[in-house]
């Protein structure tokens, strides 16, 4: 059922230029109660209206929906432990500066690793090429060297002292999951998550025949290019994507890794994102033991400026994107492209808002936290009415 109040609010934000399209969903006790689609999923080079089945680049929502979920399965099977050191699996981390980093540190962003680094700006990966085979070779080469590169980065801050949200944390987790399974992440996810849940529109590297139902992203990757310049990186010789990014991952590191990474790269619809989100709730999960689901709501970063659980932020300390109507026990994650997921385990509610804020908009991109808070407030109120609360 569409919520006219939510839809009208999102139409206002489209008119204001926050994003060209939005698809939303709110569910309670395993049932979708509210959903709607607003605006155009593609504005350039043509107009294509958004619909409930529009596929979005979920960006960093890949972290919990794939990497965090797979890590939880490995923890459940006792194949890894939260207290395991990364050096147990990768000798490159067996140094004074990195030896103490644990799996929990990676999952909660307390490892001391820096927030971001353009790993694609390395020797041998600078020139853009059209040859697909050579591109694949370079992606494989980056995958093979990225652990050594990350292990060699100087600590950005002392481990366990603060939370610094970091893509390198989940790049290390990507390689750890792949090492334990002996396969690439997209193959693991297909066998362990997408297949068992019967998902048909969730994948890394979407097939070309679905192009027209995918929301477009940025034209070129001007944001990352400018970020590299601002941080003082030498970008000469690198083949930046100057074309309309549409149907391939927006994130530069994920793209350089062949579109498959644990920090970004997942594409999905709101409805299929909901199917994965259910796996984090004990009463609805098909992939985990109910007890394992406690990992996603439990605060593992006591006395820090925000609260982090396994792969998620929780609302107990800050509600910047959650809003005041979600309880402290709620946990969620955002995506740079303009996507978000929040889960309320107390009321068994799931809130999904997918937008493509990076499309057809000049820099800087709009911060959407106020939009997310308002969406959660409106959706919560509507769910309360429908359930008689």
List keywords for this structure.
389 residues, alpha+beta, Beta-lactamase, eight-stranded antiparallel sheet, three-stranded antiparallel sheet, 11 strands, globular
Structure description:
There is one protein chain. The chain is of the alpha+beta class. The protein has one domain (4-387): DD-peptidase/beta-lactamase superfamily (Beta-lactamase), CATH 3.40.710.10. The chain is built from 11 helices and 11 strands. The strands form 2 sheets. An 8-stranded antiparallel beta sheet has the order 3-2-1-11-10-9-8-7, sandwiched between helices. A 3-stranded antiparallel beta sheet has the order 4-6-5. It is globular, with a radius of gyration of 20 Å.
Low-confidence blocks of residues: 123-134
Shape: globular
CATH topology: Beta-lactamase
Strand order of the largest sheet: 3-2-1-11-10-9-8-7
End-to-end C-alpha gap: 19 Å
CATH architecture: 3-Layer(aba) Sandwich
Radius of gyration: 20 Å
If you average the pLDDT, what whole number results?
94
Structural class: alpha+beta
Domain count: 1
Number of contiguous helices:
11
**Which CATH class?**
Alpha Beta
Amount of helix = 25-40%
Please describe the biggest sheet, giving its number of strands, its sense, and whether it closes into a barrel. 8 strands, antiparallel
CATH homology-level superfamily: DD-peptidase/beta-lactamase superfamily
What is the β-strand count?
A: 11
